[in-house]
Amino acid sequence: MNALTVFDPQSPQARAIFHLAIVAGIIFAAIFVIVAGMIVYALMRCRWREGEGDPKQIAGNKTVELVWTTIPCLIVVALFILSWKTMGAADPPPAPEPDIVITGHQWWWEARYPKSGVVTANEIHIPAGKALSIRLESADVLHEFWVPEIGRKMTTVPGHPNNIWIESDHPMTYLGVCSEFCGTEHAWMHFLVVAETPEQFQAWEQAQLTPAKTPTGGSATLGRALFQQTSCMNCHAINGTAATAGVGPDLTHFASRRILGAGVAENNRANLRSWLKNPQEVKPGVKMPNYKFTETELTQLTDYIETLQ
Ligand code: CUA
To answer: What is the CATH architecture assignment of 219-305?
Structure first.
C-alpha cells in the first residue's frame, strides 16, 4: 500500500500539484539565496572600520526602486500563471453527475456510487486510469478528504457539497485520511482507495450490488436474528434484511473490507469480536455503544457478520 505522501504523485491531478510545489520551491529557494547573499555581502563589504567617518548619505534611487518593484511583480505574475495552470489541471469544474458521493461522518467515510447504486464505507474502489468526479458531503461537522497521491485535499462542509477529481494511473491501494480536526477520533478516520483494472472494478461493483446471503442454520443464523432484534439495525443497513438505517456504516459486504473502525484495526475475526465486545475500548468515543453482549451472543454475531462477504 502506498503511504500517504505528497512526494509520490500517481495521477495527472496530483502530479500537477507536485510540479507546482517543486517549481515554486525552487523560486523561493533562489530568492532566499539571493537576498541572504546580498545581506551577507553588505555586512562584509560595508561594515564600519577603524578611522572611517560616516559614509555618504543617499536618499532615493529611481533605478534601484524600479528594479526592486519590477522583479517581485514579475515573480508574482509568474506564480499566478503557474497556479492558474495547475488549478486547471488538478481541479477542473465538476462533472454534472458525480461518479462517487463521499460523506464524512464522525468518524468514518461513506461512499455512494449514484450510477450503480453501490453503498460502502471506508474502502473506496475506483477503476484505474479514469478521472472520477467526487462530490464531498458531511453528515455532521467539517472533515477533510485527503489522498495525497491521487488528488487535492478538500473539506467536507455540512449543507455545502464540494467537488474534486481523483484518478490513479494504475492499480494500487492508497491510504486516505481526514485532515481537518473533527473530534475525539479524528485520528482514526482513515480509509482506503483501491484502484483496480476496469474489469476488477466492474466485478467488485457487481458483488457489492448483490444482497447479503442469508445463512442457512447454525450460529450465524442466530447471529442474524440477534442483529435484527437488538439495536444494531437502528444504525446499520444490511441489504437483503430489514436493516436499512444509515447512521453507521452499511454492513452488507462488511467482511469483504480490509479495515475495521475506519482503520483502527485490521478486519479479521479476532478484531471484529473485540469490537463487538466493546467498541469503546477499541476506539474510545466512537458513536457505537457497548452492548454488553454475552460470550455466546458475541460468537453468534461474529459468525453472522463474517458471512457478509
Ligand atoms: Cu473527520 Cu477529522
So the answer is: Sandwich (2.60)
Residue spans of the domains in the chain: they are 12-48+60-90, 219-305
Looking at the CA of residue 183, tell me the nearest atom of ligand 1: 2
Instruction: Identify the band that residue 231 occupies on the pLDDT scale cut at 50, 70 and 90.
Output: confident
Distance CA 56, CA 52 (A): 11
Query: How many CB atoms are closer than 10 A to CB 58?
Result: 7
Full-model pTM: 0.89
Cα(153) to ligand 1 centroid in Å equals 12
C-alpha cell at 270: 479476532
- Would you say the C-alpha torsion 238, 243, 246, 249 has a positive or negative sign? negative
Cβ 182 under 6 angstroms from ligand 1: yes
Q: What value does the CA radius of gyration of the chain take, rounded to a whole number of Å?
A: 27
What count of Cα atoms within 13 Å lies in the side-chain half-sphere of residue 185? 23
What's the one-letter identity of residue 274? S
Angle of helix 219-229 relative to helix 295-306, nearest 10 degrees?
A: 100
Residue-wise pLDDT for 248-264, tens only, equals 999 999 999 999 999 99
